[in-house]
Amino acid sequence: MNVLVYGAGQLAQMMYLAGAPLNLNVLAVDVANKTVVHPVEKTVLPQSLEQAINDADVLTVEFEHVPEELLLVAEESGKLSPNLQSILVGADRVREKHLLESLNIANCEHEIITDIAQLDGICERLGEKIIFKSSRDGYDGYGQWRSSTAADLPELKNIFTKLDLHKVPIVAEKMCPFTRELSLLGARNESGEIVVYPLAQNTHHEGQLHTSIAPAPLLSEALQAQALDIFTRLAEKLEYVGVLAVELFEHDGVLLVNELAPRVHNSGHWSMHGADTCQFENHLRAVCALPLGSTEHGPAAAMINIIGCNTFSKNFLSISGVHFHWYGKTVREKRKMGHINVTANSYADLADKFGNLSEYLPMEFFPKLLADADRIK
């Protein structure tokens, strides 16, 4: 089968690598210039986008911010999975909030701002600690602004007056005093079969994911069941096909949905070595109408992002259970350059391996690594 992925970054690359053993031919689309490229080599291929769509059995995406005109053509082909509605929900926080509300799924108290006048009195309604998020194109901490006190609002008003809030509204969310950040990844195929991975515990720094640990420490059956219920309701409502990521806050034993990502996700990279079937293979299985793979997993696994650096000793590969994935990008501040996966026999073993890794890595680029080790010992 031929699979065409919209987006030509590391997620398309990892889909290609997962698809090869299944005899799936995966190509990618550079959506900036509408060229068809090899997902690993990044070389431009001779066929046009129109030809590649015709040749493909399945069209899918590696990220949700694909230009809508390209998605409309993909949807018209009848080959797009997940469907257009699902991708647009992931790309637009207003659509996302409406979906969550329609299903009575808990999320942070919020207001949708389409006019600067709506900021008047907002601290009385939501409290002084508010995070403002652009409804589109915001990720990894971009397109976000924080208010700690009411005194921050005049400066934010000056910023927002320069934006077209009618075209791209802002979602103002009350900052939730959550215990921890979690994510659930699962897959659903066209026949309605669903598999999910264990909840992962995520640590962010300056708006970017730095580490994911799975299963999340102190994970109860009740919390996993709550997450499964949220995933199932969302996936069935959307008639979703593929891997879906649900980012969550845990607060007093209750899960609040933070964001949805209609695709394979950074917090699921640990599954490449820590689960029976990784997220990339399960996404391809789902969109290609193959049976979904088992999500059975080991005692403890983790993913550590390599962000903004390439100066480290690869001798960390001498540590058992450590695996290295490099994306082949030019170094840039805050850019995800690759990741390290770690598998362990216990959380204590995982913490020890984090400590061992710190001997080989420039720790200014891994500011949460040792703190995470302390949390899980």
UniProtKB/TrEMBL annotation:
Its EC number is 6.3.4.18. Transmembrane segments: none annotated. Pathway: Purine metabolism; IMP biosynthesis via de novo pathway; 5-amino-1-(5-phospho-D-ribosyl)imidazole-4-carboxylate from 5-amino-1-(5-phospho-D-ribosyl)imidazole (N5-CAIR route): step 1/2. Residues 97-288 form the ATP-grasp domain. InterPro entries: ATP-grasp, ATP-grasp_carboxylate-amine, ATP_grasp_subdomain_1, PreATP-grasp_dom_sf, PurK, PurK_C, PurT/PurK_preATP-grasp, Rudment_hybrid_motif. GO terms for cellular component: cytosol. ATP binds at residues 93, 133, 138-144, 181, 204, 258-259. Keywords: ATP-binding, Ligase, Nucleotide-binding, Purine biosynthesis. It catalyses: 5-amino-1-(5-phospho-beta-D-ribosyl)imidazole + hydrogencarbonate + ATP = 5-carboxyamino-1-(5-phospho-D-ribosyl)imidazole + ADP + phosphate + 2 H(+). GO terms for molecular function: 5-(carboxyamino)imidazole ribonucleotide synthase activity; ATP binding; metal ion binding; phosphoribosylaminoimidazole carboxylase activity. One of its GO terms (biological process) is 'de novo' IMP biosynthetic process. Catalyzes the ATP-dependent conversion of 5-aminoimidazole ribonucleotide (AIR) and HCO(3)- to N5-carboxyaminoimidazole ribonucleotide (N5-CAIR). Catalyzes the ATP-dependent conversion of 5-aminoimidazole ribonucleotide (AIR) and HCO(3)(-) to N5-carboxyaminoimidazole ribonucleotide (N5-CAIR). Belongs to the PurK/PurT family. Homodimer. This is N5-carboxyaminoimidazole ribonucleotide synthase. The gene is purK.
